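Tokenise the fold.
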Amino acid sequence: MLTSYEHLSYSLFSGSNPGCVSCLLNDLDLEVEFRNKTYYPNGRNGPDRDNNAERVIIEGVKDGDVATITVTGYNLMQNFQHYALVATGCFGGVANQNFVDQCSAFECDNSLLTRRAIILMAVCIPLAVILCCCAVAMCRRRSSKKSRGGDLTPVEVDSAVVYGDDKTEGEEGQKEAA
């Protein structure tokens, strides 16, 4: 059984212009050179002139192996052709030999730290804003209650109870008796 790091897969997808029933116009062909052997797509022994989706799978890949991918145009009706090339497998070491001065993908990969920092900021910043809004709302509510005289909690002063409207318990009793 092969694991994901023991094989590489290369897929090429290109568009085709209508006009030819028995041929593929603007055909792009995929070839992969690996260990001095040329691999052609879709299990063929040569270029695939019938399909605009081509795939090469190479098994038994080891660390340090190098594959060269070539895309060649055939039966082109125009000077350019849009296509997508997808390579899948385990790619360790230097990602591109054009930038040899860069470190390997494993040494320079800080995506976990970056992703973690972004998630923490995405959670903590809105939470802090919500808490600040709640605190401001509570302060405003308290100040509006005090300004309206809504806070009538009894306070004991010299054995007389004083209410928020400055009436004492004794004064109320005297008014009722009169």
Summary: The chain is about 30% helix and 25% strand. The mean pLDDT is 75.
